[in-house]
Design goal:
With 448 residues, the protein is mainly β. It has helices at 31-39, 44-47, 165-168; strands spanning 14-15, 91-92, 97-106, 109-114, 120-124, 128-132, 156-161, 170-179, 182-192, 199-207, 222-224, 230-233, 255-259, 281-284, 289-294, 300-304, 311-316, 340-341, 344-345, 358-360, 366-371, 384-388, 393-400, 403-410, 418-423, 429-433, 438-445.
């Protein structure tokens, strides 16, 4: 893809000069051999990609650039591929806003989806889907949601409206599904009843394979594209023996997939027709992606939990390989370096694999991704907003084309884990905080 449309900040954005969603595996003995073997498993477009990101040329950082991040890095000695790939210049839009707490007492809310009438669907990880009114009145759990494998990072996860929700009242959600021998992420769809008390005609339209008995790295987010297709992201299940699955095309772990809303596979997916590949796969090589959204130009972006010192923002492209676990910034959370798997040790740069557009070191534990397009905050139009769990903040990124050119950290004084951020039909931003007693927030222009 070659788009030359610019996403720029408002003139009110200023650089700081003083501080920082709409095949059989074979073990290879050497990393060189692994890369050569894996190249045969990728689409031609992925084979021909360079280790540098497929984005516009990076310009040198301005002399007065001071990053917003001042803490010591998690991983020492990491060298980015291009200027601004990490610790970009701090910016401030000087936007005054209020935080309105709409609802409290949600048990580990995972996703918020604004409805056209001003109400909200909110998932709670233990397995409850609730309707919350604009004034904060919380419903009993909506009936009809299948049982979830709640535990660790698993449970009821993302929820999204059908693009035709106004006519069909259809919703989609992801969840960790209990299965014989373990569990796995699944996507279900159903019709919200007119009184919004239950979901009818529920069916699972996609199941991540293989099944695994674990509690981590389920992913996942849903995003409907301009093409009407459903895109979803999934983790590789975390445990070291599972990591190579992110590079294998015979399963969905560590992938972004693309399907029709009924669960069938589009014929133009990159691996359709290959006997050794799952046809739903759109790209590969991810660790634990928990944010997925299209920007105003129709480009698909993703954020994922990386290793310690390697959280990523990626521009997702058809058939490309994003590297995990062979390519990664950061170190193991245990402190071990380099990162390892059955494929061999990792490196920050591997030929034929896509570089992240941006990475965080130290990590923010990103979850939720929204490109702002509303009128309530004109200075924020085109900016990306990302929830921070470990960082307990909302991150605003300013982009110029497909490069990050500025970063601002918001809500740091609230001291809560931001799990999801969505734009409502009213142009306001809505967030949920992943706490035992989590909250639903609304960001509004100051004094409104």
């Amino acid at each position: 893809m070659s788009l030359h449309i610019r996403l720029t900040s408002s003139p009110s954005d200023t650089m700081s000069t003083i501080r920082t969603r709409p095949r059989p595996f074979r073990l290879i003995a050497t990393s060189v051999g692994v890369i050569a073997t894996l190249a045969a498993c990728t689409a031609p477009a992925a084979q021909n990609s360079s280790s540098a990101p497929s984005t516009s040329a990076a310009q040198p950082l301005p002399a007065n650039c001071t990053p917003v991040e001042t803490r010591p890095p998690n991983a020492k000695g990491q060298t980015p591929v291009f200027p601004g790939q990490t610790r970009i210049c701090s910016v401030s839009s000087n936007v005054a806003f209020d935080v309105v707490v709409i609802a409290k007492g949600l048990e580990h809310p995972w996703s918020v989806e604004p409805l056209p009438d001003g109400q909200f669907l909110v998932t709670e990880r233990p397995g409850r889907l609730r309707l919350i009114s604009a004034s904060g009145q919380m419903s009993e759990p909506i009936e009809g949601i299948p049982a979830v494998a709640a535990g660790g990072q698993g449970g009821l996860l993302d929820v999204a409206l059908s693009p035709a929700f106004a006519n069909d009242r259809t919703i989609f959600w992801t969840f960790s599904e209990p299965r014989e021998g373990g569990n796995g992420t699944a996507i279900a769809r159903g019709v919200l009843s007119a009184d919004r008390k239950r979901v009818d005609d529920v069916r699972v339209i996609f199941r991540v394979m293989p099944t695994y008995n674990g509690k981590m790295h389920f992913g996942s987010r849903i995003a409907f594209g301009p093409d009407g297709m459903l895109y979803a992201s999934f983790g590789e299940r975390s445990d070291t023996p599972m990591r190579p699955n992110a590079q294998k095309l015979d399963g969905h772990l560590g992938k972004v997939i693309r399907i029709r809303p009924d669960g069938t596979v589009p014929n133009d997916n990159p691996f359709v027709g290959r006997a050794d590949a799952k046809p739903e796969i759109w790209d590969l090589g991810h660790r634990n992606p928990q944010g997925l959204a299209f920007d105003p130009q129709g480009r698909l972006w993703q954020v994922e939990h990386g290793t310690r010192g390697g959280d990523e923002l990626n521009l997702i492209q058809k058939g490309k390989n994003y590297g995990w676990p062979l390519q990664a910034y950061g170190i193991e959370y245990s402190g071990q370096q380099p990162i390892t798997s059955a494929l061999g040790p990792s490196a920050p740069q591997v030929a034929g694999m896509e570089q992240p557009v941006y990475f965080w070191d130290p990590v923010i534990a990103p979850s939720g991704l929204q490109f702002y397009t509303g009128n309530a905050f004109p200075a924020w139009r085109g900016n990306a907003f990302i929830g921070g769990l470990g960082g307990k903040r909302l991150v605003r990124l300013v982009l110029d084309g497909t490069r990050v050119v500025g970063e601002e950290h918001l809500l740091t004084d609230r001291n809560q884990r931001v799990r999801d951020v969505r734009q409502g039909p009213d142009g306001l931003l809505y967030l949920v905080t992943d706490e035992q007693a989590g909250e639903l927030w609304k960001l509004t222009p100051k004094g409104q």
